Amino acid sequence: MDFEPDDEQRAVVETTRAFVRKELMPHEEEVERTGRLDLDVAIELRNKAIRAGLYAANMPEDIGGGGLDTLTWMLMERELGHTGFALQMFAVARPSPILLACAGAQREDYLLPTVAGDRVECLAMTEPEAGSDLRGMRTRAVRDGSDWVITGTKHFISHVDHSDYIVLFAATGEDETSPAGDGTRRRQAQITAFLVDTDTPGLEVLPGYRSVSHRGYDNFVLAFDGARVPADAVLGEVGAGFSVATTWLGTTRLQVAATCLGRAQRALDLAVGHAVSRRQFGTSIGRNQGVSFQLADMATAIEAASLLTWRAASLVDVGRQDDTAIAMAKLSATETLAKVADSALQIHGGMGLMDELPLERIWRDARVERIWDGTSEIQRHIISRSLLRARGG
Question: Over its length of 393 residues, how does the chain's per-residue pLDDT go in tens digits?
Fold first, then answer.
């Protein structure tokens, strides 16, 4: 399988790379120092990204997006990954493909304005008690006449402060699962997706937790206390939210993998530069096997994780989305970033921990990647389950 980029892909990569270095990276220090990206700056950068043709590049052309295939999108994500999450997400939005489920008036009210950069969405799945167990969520939406009334709490919800509406997942009933090994059956939540404006009465947006990863890209708590939404707020079909969510999680996990590759490459580049310029005992430290072998391992791990990511993206493009391939890509890329960031910091010695260099940020930011959008343990479960099922296990 040949992953050599074609002319169009090279153009996307070069345009994105130039934009990141010229427009986004100069703001890194301010975001790290203040813990926020000024809203006016975010809007200015967003307008520049729109003019550069980078905004909503992952969405279809017929609704105003860039129409990138999944592989090209992931090559773009790798370049965006060179900078901090707040900068790349607020300036160069890639709307969730889940919005393609919008129908009727939802297209005019939510989908098209989001692709155009006039509205911003966030996604609300995670709950304090449920975590990765989507079927265990306790936020409920109950019919009341023609409306739905929502009650419950979501947390770890990213960038609500920059968002106009929420793609919310809530339980709207129960399904009976297939028989368990002991012959019993159990019930689990039936999930439905909703489009909920952030100013909906009965919804309170509360500050979240202070995270060591991704400064400026804050998380929030959403408290629903009888928030009422109309019937046409349902995204897709009632009870089909779990299917919609798992479809969305696929490309999102690839997105995480690709951005991790960009950050890992930046860490490696810094380590190589330091290994060449730093001299001890009369020679550059890169000539010492203790350093040079680390560099070799870092480069090899990045290449291997890249190939897994490009392969998984290519399968999506030919209509063969493979959850196992996606899980392998996310697992490999996120854990590679952690190891590369740690090794790069070690090669720099004490200076690696100082905030004069971006390495300590890359090192801190790397930690969350093995947790959100499915932990490493979830990815290993997906991979091992596919192996066992193939043998009847």
Answer: 677 889 999 999 999 999 999 999 999 999 999 998 888 999 999 999 999 999 999 999 999 999 999 999 999 999 999 999 999 999 999 999 999 999 999 999 999 999 999 999 999 998 887 765 677 788 999 999 999 999 999 999 999 988 999 999 999 988 766 444 555 566 777 899 999 999 999 999 999 999 989 998 999 999 999 999 999 999 999 988 888 777 767 789 999 999 999 999 999 999 999 998 877 777 878 878 889 999 999 999 999 999 999 999 999 999 998 999 999 999 999 999 999 999 999 999 998 889 888 999 999 999 999 998 889 999 999 999 999 998 887
Structure tokens at 301: 């791990």
Max intra-chain CA distance, the chain:
81
For residue 36, how many other CB atoms are within 10 A of its CB? 16
Do 148 and 391 contact (CB within 8 A), yes or no? no
CA distance 227 to 371: 30
The β-bridge partners of 225 are 151
For the chain, the distance separating the N- and C-terminal CA atoms, rounded to the nearest angstrom, is: 31
pTM of the model: 0.90
